[in-house]
Amino acid sequence: MSKARPNSRRNLDIAIERVSVERGDPLRLRTALANAIVGQMLPSGTVKGGGALKLRYGDAATRFTRDLDTARASSIEAYIEELERNLERGWNGFTGRVVPRKPARPKNVPEGYVMQPYSIKLEYNRKPWLTVELEVGHNEIGDADAPEPIMSPDIAGVFVELGFPVPDPIGLMPLHHQIAQKLHGLTEEGSARAHDLVDLQIILANSDIDLILTRKTCARLFAYRNLQEWPPFIRVGEGWEALYDRQAADLNVLPSVGEAAAWANELVSRIDAAKMR
Q1: Is the pTM above the cut of 0.85?
Q2: Domain that residue 222 falls in
Q3: Is 2 domain-assigned?
Q4: Which InterPro entries match (predicted)?
């Protein structure tokens, strides 16, 4: 006989606290679960960024992130309308609503590249539970066209422990697009994305990468955005040391941001050399 899911928001949080005794920080676990729940209701497209890596590799193997970043395969209006319908319909007691937020205005970044931010106000049994910070981007060079349906056994196992069914696989952005976007983000003017050094190490440690395909995608993305040239050089930026240390804590990655940047520059060289094979 299968375990019954919690019958109230309070009992849900108590169950998560109990499970987190062996798995770590309950806030971190709740956030990972909430992102996976919203992922059950996303329209066509892909999940990207740190949230995608968590859904691919599991909670313990990846850094903490509050955001859920996506690339849409439709217009922003159609995407949000479908998301609102799906959230109203819900998933196993979880429902929600979409609240728009004001987009950022990064320096030297064309408006078309700016992510559209929303707060997803999740409820459990119609009681407020948790907010997921969703950022929606457009389809860049086909990064939303071929989602890879994946659900980490680690995260799926937590749902089962709590009495829920195993969530469906969620469409994740292919890794060659993820790598290209992270290398671009690291080398933008004034970048504060030291966490991408952590993510790149996690990707390379856990997946076999097609370097030739990745090189083609990197060259296309850098040309498409037209902000810096491929291949780039990664320099440690102001404040990166503290940012890196915070995101790398308890993960199997290089101990210092300087070592991580040197490793990433070697990765760029390996990717760029793949064009000659």
Answers
A1: yes
A2: 176-276
A3: no
A4: AbiEii (IPR014942)
